[in-house]
């Protein structure tokens, strides 16, 4: 299991692949890599028994893939919570540090960290934290880019990408904000929204709109 494969497991889980199918395009956009590279890696992971790939239907996690993804996501998000709540890290700083720490975290250490933090249910960027038995409430997997014009939604979570979190901090978009989608510009253009929480109009880039999950 390489760090890259672990990143694939985590992003497939985050996109909803534990219970549904996700597309190559979703993974490519979320990891910011070429679609051809996704196809190659997914084929390897399917051979190794971590994912099921049905051409033209999508990709989902096997039971073993889900088990590993849940463990990695739990470790990663517990460390993110610790870094923000106990050490005062800013959101854009936490992913790289948590990425290193998750690989050296035993179940005993993860449980101790969980207890010390008061058993949090969500990390600082809104992601669900599975409990020590691997249980978790299902997140929304609807991304902002897929919301129809005229619909109003609430921001639930963000993918923990450094550049994204810096960008969202700059435009002051937060978890819990209520947004009305005004317009999708054509040809992979930005999404125009009105933030009803602070009465501001925002223009959110195409890729960023795939990293913002809403309900």
Count of discrete alpha- or pi-helical segments spanning 4 or more residues? 7
Oligomer: single chain
Low-confidence stretches: none
Strand order of the largest sheet: 3-8-4-5-6-7
What is the string of SSEs from the N terminus onward? Answer: HHHEEHHHEEHEEEE
Shape: globular
Structural class: alpha+beta
Major sheet: size, sense and barrel closure?
6 strands, antiparallel
Rg: 17 Å
| Overall number of strands | 8
Tell me the fraction of residues in β-strands, as a range.
Answer: 15-25%
Describe the structure.
The protein has 7 helices and 8 strands; from the N terminus they run H-H-H-E-E-H-H-H-E-E-H-E-E-E-E. The protein has helices spanning 3-14, 24-31, 35-47, 63-85, 91-102, 107-116, 162-171; strands at 51-54, 58-61, 142-143, 152-158, 178-184, 191-195, 200-204, 212-214. A hairpin with a 4-residue loop joins strand 6 (191-195) and strand 7. Helix 1 (3-14) packs across helix 4 (63-85), helix 2 (24-31) packs across helix 3 (35-47) and helix 5 runs antiparallel to helix 7 (162-171). The longest helix has 23 residues, at 63-85. 34% of the residues are buried.
């Amino acid at each position: 299991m390489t760090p890259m494969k672990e990143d694939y497991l985590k992003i497939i889980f985050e996109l909803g692949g534990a219970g549904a199918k996700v597309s190559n395009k979703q993974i490519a956009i979320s990891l910011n890599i070429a679609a051809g590279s996704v196809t190659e890696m997914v084929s390897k992971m399917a051979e190794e028994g971590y994912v099921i790939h049905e051409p033209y239907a999508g990709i989902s996690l096997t039971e073993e893939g889900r088990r590993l993804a849940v463990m990695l996501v739990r470790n990663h998000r517990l460390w993110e919570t610790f870094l923000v709540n106990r050490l005062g890290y800013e959101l854009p700083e936490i992913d790289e540090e948590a990425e290193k720490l998750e690989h050296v975290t035993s179940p005993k250490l993860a449980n101790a960290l969980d207890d010390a933090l008061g058993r949090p249910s969500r990390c600082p960027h809104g992601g669900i934290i599975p409990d020590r038995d691997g249980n978790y409430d299902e997140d929304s997997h609807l991304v902002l880019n897929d919301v129809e014009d005229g619909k109003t939604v609430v921001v639930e979570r963000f993918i923990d990408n450094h550049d994204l979190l810096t960008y969202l901090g700059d435009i002051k978009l937060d978890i819990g904000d209520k947004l009305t989608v005004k317009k999708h510009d054509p040809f992979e253009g930005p999404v125009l929204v009105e933030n009803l929480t602070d009465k501001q109009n925002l223009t959110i880039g195409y890729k960023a709109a795939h990293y913002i999950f809403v309900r």
